[in-house]
Design goal:
By secondary structure, the protein is an alpha/beta fold. Helices cover 43% and strands 16% of the residues. The chain has a six-stranded mixed sheet, sandwiched between helices. The chain has a five-stranded parallel sheet with strand order 9-6-7-8-16, sandwiched between helices. It has a three-stranded antiparallel sheet with strand order 2-1-3. Helix 6 links the parallel strand 6 and strand 7.
């Protein structure tokens, strides 16, 4: 399958699109066509493992890659049922994507992507990639888990030494596994990384050692492609179990986050998945919800700190792909919008009102009181335990269904395990414990929710690496590259 850019008519093969992350015109790669050419894929994957669905649907994009090996390797550390569906009440289901090695939805999709990315780069004749990340420890932990042991794709994650202790437990610091965690003392970790990556000396060192430092991994279309089969698999599972009939429409509610899963859900709809509404849920940082409803995006605005902190971003990574779909896949309109956003921190678009995505997307936002009330209600009435992110999704979907009267069956996508930010989950349930480890124990006692494997067995050991000053980021990357070279 061919891919094109969100900003021009550049064309690229699927392997090139994934290997290069971004197009030469500065745009993002997107599939040129999302039509499924063969048969009823939903009935084909119904009753079969998620691995089969992942391989089957990815084969529509890649016809010459060892997809079976890629998916099997990505699943080797996942539970037998990596994405369980639970029934909250009649017609309402949760899709739990938090059972992986680090308790986040990205575990499965990023695990598939990391291997896909490495294979595509080798096929395109590109050197091994060193992927640096700076930000929250829990996201860095997921990145390292996904890339650990992957040949020719190596990750180094920098995080604040003041991070919640629970989210730094179990992070490997071993360069022999192709990953490294670095705790940093400083106020601007991301700024320090950006400065380091502009260093001619660092990039020359990388070239000398036969690797390339690559950013933009979070914008790679491969990450969205790896998510698509999850939505097909969920629908097929519900139909196979008799909860819905084949062909019936299903509403899907999911969090805004970085819009990767939302992009994939839109792609699934365009590929023929019978989706009614896709409901995007934002917290008090409601810019994406406003964009979907009013077609204006403001990046120059206050950024509120919330319990659902993964939504606390000024500009989500995949806002450009969302813009491209809302404008009717118009590269000129998308380029103009993104140019405006970068120049003035604001963009306004004219949506394609005849477009499938315009008709499908809904959005709303929830404040902290809404989140607490929703989490408490779902626990009290349905015995469903939500973290703050999932409670945002449930709250927004509840408002949507009440306001519209839409009574189609619905799937609520859970993206962060309640135990990952246990202290915050306790807060929204009306309890408290500031100590991360004690909060886990208290949450288990209150809810009887089984601890995920990423929490079970963690005691209290600190991350297996030292603390560096903020200005030593470049040195840390240089040392990592040299160690990778020494390990062969």
């Amino acid at each position: 399958m061919l891919f094109t850019s969100t900003r021009s008519d550049i064309k690229a093969s699927a392997t090139r699109a994934v290997a290069n992350s971004t197009a030469s015109d500065g745009g993002l790669y997107v599939p040129l066509s999302l039509h499924i050419p063969d048969g009823d894929i939903i009935k084909d994957i119904a009753g079969k493992p998620l691995a089969y669905a992942e391989e089957r649907i990815l084969s529509l994009f890649f016809d010459d890659l060892p997809l079976g090996e890629i998916v099997a390797d990505a699943l080797k550390d996942m539970p037998e049922d990596p994405a369980p569906i639970l029934k909250c009440e009649e017609g309402l289901y949760t899709f739990d994507l938090t059972q992986g090695p680090t308790g986040r939805a990205d575990d499965f999709a990023l695990g598939v992507f990391s291997r896909l990315y490495a294979v595509c780069r080798r096929k395109e004749g590109l050197p091994p990639a060193v992927i640096p990340f700076a930000g929250e420890a829990e996201k860095g932990r997921t990145l390292l888990s996904a890339f650990c042991g992957v040949k020719d794709a190596y990750a180094i994650a920098f995080f604040d030494e003041r991070e919640d202790k629970l989210n730094t437990l179990g992070i490997s610091g071993a360069a022999s596994d192709g990953c490294r965690a670095v705790s940093v003392r400083g106020e601007d970790i991301e700024g320090s990384l950006k400065k380091a990556l502009k260093s001619d000396a660092l990039n020359s060192l990388a070239k000398e050692h036969g690797v390339e430092i690559v950013r933009g991994n979070e914008l790679n279309v491969g990450r969205a492609l790896a998510y698509i089969p999850l939505f097909f698999s969920a629908y097929a599972e519900l139909a196979y179990a008799g909860e819905i009939k084949y062909g019936d429409k299903l509403n899907i509610a999911l969090p805004v986050s970085d819009l990767t899963a939302a992009t994939a859900c839109c792609y699934a709809k365009l590929m023929g998945l019978p989706v009614g509404s896709i409901v995007l849920a934002a917290n008090a940082n409601s810019a994406v919800a406003k964009f979907v409803n009013e077609y204006v995006f403001e990046a120059d605005r206050p950024l509120y700190a919330t319990l659902s902190h993964e939504f606390d971003a000024l500009v989500p990574d995949n806002i450009e792909r969302l813009t491209y779909m809302l404008t009717g896949f118009d590269p000129a309109a998308t380029k103009a919008a993104m140019d405006s956003l970068f120049a003035s921190r604001r963009m306004e678009i004219s949506p394609d009102k005849d477009g499938e995505i315009y008709k499908t997307l809904q959005a709303g936002w929830a404040d902290e009181d809404d989140v607490r009330q929703t989490a408490f209600n779902f626990f009290d009435i349905d015995d469903c335990v939500f973290d703050a992110h999932s409670a945002v999704t449930a709250s927004v979907f509840n408002d949507y269904s009440c306001e519209t009267g839409d009574d189609l069956p619905a799937l609520l996508v859970e993206t962060v395990n309640p135990y990952i930010n246990a202290a915050d989950t306790l807060k929204i349930l009306g309890a408290r414990d500031a100590d991360a480890i004690k909060a886990v124990n208290k949450l288990e006692n209150i809810t009887a929710l089984e601890r995920p494997s990423c929490i079970t067995g963690l005691a209290g050991d600190a991350v297996a690496c030292g603390v560096i000053p903020e200005g030593w980021t470049e040195d840390a990357i240089s040392a990592f590259i040299k160690e990778l070279h020494n390990h062969g």
